[in-house]
Amino acid sequence: MIILPDADMEATAEIVGESAFGCAGQRCLAASIVATVGTARQTFQEAIAEVARTRKVGFGLQKGVDMGPVISNESQERIEAVIDQGAADGASLFLDGRKPSVSGYEKGYFVGPTIFSDVNPENALASTEIFGPVLSLHPFEQVSSAIDFVNSGRYGNMACLFTRSGWAARKFRYEVEAGNIGINIGVAAPVASFPFSGWKDSFFGDLHGQGQDAIEFYTLKKVVVERWLSESV
Q1: Rounded CA gap, 107 and 99, in Å?
Q2: CA torsion 8→13→19→25, rounded to 10°?
Q3: Could you write out the three-class secondary structure of 56-113?
Q4: CA proximity to 96, closest of 108, 78, 84, 109
Q5: Contact 119, 11 (CB under 8 A)
Q6: pLDDT tens string 211-223
Q7: 23 counts as catalytic
Q8: Domains of the chain, residue spans
């Protein structure tokens, strides 16, 4: 996700927070990397930190709980190891969600919302599919540099831009190398009738199994080429 300085920061933070921390980050389209441009570095960081701090972690079926546990002890340990490594590699741990206290569920596999700031593109956080509630913020000065950063990754499932600039939105939608694009909205996992288009290592096979591609997949086509000479007609 790329955040430009002219974006509605309050709305953007709510959308990114839901994407990054909803389902405890355990979904293929969960946001894990944010590229901030210019002054959005400070304003978005403050906004997303407020969203993260107000999310209540606990037993997901209890009223008022925003985020449940991760799926297993192994998952919890793996996510915490990623956080450990990210910090060891020099990223600033702005909000640490490791080992949250959840009264009555002390043995639960909980990881709270975690935010890294000022992350270097060389940090492993920039290329790791975390599948946990961990968000890394990467600062850039130009939208072109942020797009180049997105395109440098091996995955191409989703990319989103938050801005009020039509020019930036047009540039983003044509230049970014991802199959699912969101402009001022997070890309949700669609229902089967909705087209879906992962790129790069975010896709296997020849055709996507949703939308029009699904019709193509299940259709047996026949190509007929004919030529009729004039005396045969």
Answers
A1: 10
A2: 160
A3: CECCCCCCCCCECCCCCHHHHHHHHHHHHHHHHCCCEEEECCCCCCCCCCCCCCCCCC
A4: 84
A5: no
A6: 777 787 788 888 8
A7: no
A8: 2-206
- Token pair for 98: 């490791």
For residue 100 the two structure tokens come to 């949250």
Say which of 10, 11, 27, 28 is annotated catalytic: 28
What letter represents residue 125's amino acid?
L
Name the pTM for this structure.
0.83
pLDDT one-digit tens code per residue, 37-69: 999 999 999 999 999 999 999 998 999 999 999
Residue 96 phi, psi dihedral angles, 5° rounding: -100, 115
Q: How far apart are CA 198 and CA 191, in angstroms?
A: 15
Task: Identify the CATH assignment for 2-206 out of 3.40.309.10, 3.30.565.10, 3.40.630.30, 3.40.710.10.
Answer: 3.40.309.10
Would you call 135 helix, strand, or coil by DSSP? strand
